[in-house]
Amino acid sequence: MVSNEQRRRQLAREKFERQQQRREEARRKARRRNAVIAAALAVVLAAGVTAYATGALSGDDKKDTTDAAAPETSKAPSKGPDPCAKPAPGSPATKTWKSEPEMGIDKSAAYAMDLKTTCGTIDVKLDAANAPHTVNSFNFLAGEGYFDHTKCHRLTTAGIYVLQCGDPKGTGQGGPGYTLPDENLKDSRLKGNVYPAGTVAMANTGQPHTGGSQFFLVYQDSPLPPTYTPFGTIGAEGMKTLKKIADAGEPSGAGDGAPNATVVIDKATVAKS
Fold it and tell me: What range(s) does the PPIase cyclophilin-type domain occupy (predicted)?
């Protein structure tokens, strides 16, 4: 015969086991969620996996753990009118280089980049002091006309909020032929694994030191691990341009694809400011 004390202990043990089962199920769900997030990050940030599936680099390509937050929809939204002008005549460059250009900037000076796009100007204050290799590369590539007539090939509108540019191929797989070292990853602005609105950062393949020419412009705070070199800050005019592009959306309905707006960099310049 089971005593009251034994029965009490049995009930307590069963309650404990149920609690453990619930906790284990919660842990399994969390692991599945994290796996989805990690896979999304690898896809979005891994350049060269697929034309648009590369998140950000080598081609640089990018996107991140937030892909899981993309809205669920089986029907792509209708495409509205293109808010941007026609591109200037010309074709993207095809030249590549075997190695990073020699340092040609003054690390103590202030530099600015202007992207004259079909949707408006995107003005960027560059951080030469904390990202000298990256800024030097952009100074070199802009001088070579490398970014001229290139499409900004990727827009994310769910989970993370960025416009990705810098690939002459327009596929997420292009690059200048060399890679850059990661820089400025401990920037104080990258708090809580968030790249704040107005940040300009390098895309990469998901591996260290694999940035090339592709970069992304953050138009709304975006949760991302601090593994993408932040090297500039977008000005007020540039943020207005980005908002216009973001408001036009992308055609997939999944929050990640080519922008509906025809975003082409007609001319990119870098100069001391």
Answer: 120-270
Taking the CA atoms of residue 177, residue 178, residue 182 and residue 184 in that order, the dihedral angle to the nearest 10 degrees is: -90
CA nearest neighbour of 155 among 18, 223, 253, 31 = 253
pTM equals 0.75
- Token look-up 């690390």 returns 107
Query: Where are the domains positioned within the chain?
Result: 4-272
- Angle at CA 126, nearest 5°, toward 120 and 127? 160
Q: How far apart are CA 233 and CA 185, in angstroms?
A: 15
CATH code for 4-272? Answer: 2.40.100.10
Residue that the structure tokens 């601090």 belong to: 226
Q: Shortest CA distance to 164 belongs to which of 250, 69, 65?
A: 250
Residue 57 structure tokens: 């680099």
